[in-house]
Amino acid sequence: MMRARPAGKTRQLARALQRQRGLTLIELMVSVTIMLIVLAALIALFLNVNNTQREMVKVNRQIESGRLSVFVLENEITHAGFWENYMPEFDDLTVSGVPAKVPTGNAPDPCLPYSAVNWTEDYKRSLLDIPVQTYDAVPASCADLLPDHKPGTDVLVVRHAETCVAGMPNCEADTLGKLYFQSSFCGTQKPSDFSLDTAGFTTVLAKNCTTPAPKRKFISDIYYVRTYAEAATDGIPTLMRSRFDLSATGLAQQPPVPLIEGIDGFWVELGLDTLSKTGALVNYAQAINWADSVNRSTPTNRGDGSPDGNFIHCSTASPCTADQLVNLAAVKLYVVARSIEVSPGHTDTRRYNLGSGSLGPLNDNYKRHAFTTAIRMTNVTGRRETP
Prior knowledge:
Blueprint: H1 7-19, H2 25-79, H3 121-129, E1 132-135, E2 155-161, E3 180-183, E4 194-197, E5 216-226, E6 238-247, E7 250-253, E8 257-261, E9 263-272, H4 322-325, E10 328-338, E11 352-354, E12 357-359, E13 368-376, H5 378-384
Antiparallel strand pairs: 1-2, 2-5, 3-4, 3-5, 5-6, 6-7, 6-8, 9-10, 10-13, 11-12
């Protein structure tokens, strides 16, 4: 015979069973929906942060490429025309007559291989007197050396002597067969006396007028933008450099090496010193005319070291001549750096100012940034400054 359960215990059991009851289907679906919404928000946030981080990396790399290219080119141009104690006759204010050696006509060929026949004294002197040349396309003589030039970008040639003496600590060893430069320090020799050769080096003298002057390696660098970095199909425009040096085939400009990837625009303009301090035109066909024949501090037909008028752009249609380039006082550089990878959702509709030129709008998915700087040709202008 079963005993009846007290009413109080029955109610407690009912409440316990009610507390242990699971979720209903609707409650479960609501919970899952909320979890999915939260998860979707977290995934969206992660993707957004990840994309932002990736874009920041692209932009930072692009800006660093632009800054580095400007730094490299600015440093190179700053050294342009460094020939230690050498001074062109047309810049020597102690020359009483008409300077005999003034480059005129066409500028020197930047890719002419070294040979005793082709490299005459006048040609060597023109290399020293014209330390910077620019083109809007690869010169014909350099066509095989500088392939795949990016249309619309300039070619820059810079020359100077190495800043350290060959064979000294932290400088390249003195190597037989390489091209070296010497300038005279001896008072009995002219400031325009020099040696640019592969051997000899005994006639240009040091300050004691007995021992040979120190030798410095001849530097001639050509910068241009190639349409690719490593593979012809990668489509990454890259700043390249070809350096004059000795190889198995002789002394010549060497095959270019890549320097900085992502350089999409490169434009160079030149500031010429064509007026004297008195405002008269520079004229090397005349002896120096002094504003004061007694004090001789201000020549009226020689430059004052400052660029005059608008900066010019050397082009195929209007190439810069030796007559212009001997008066180069300043250089303006315009560089446009491009990201290596595309940025989804971005369209580059901007036009980039490159002095007298421009780039864009390109209407592609790459981000770009423009850089510009002006460089004073200190090794040239310093010779022309007067009190």
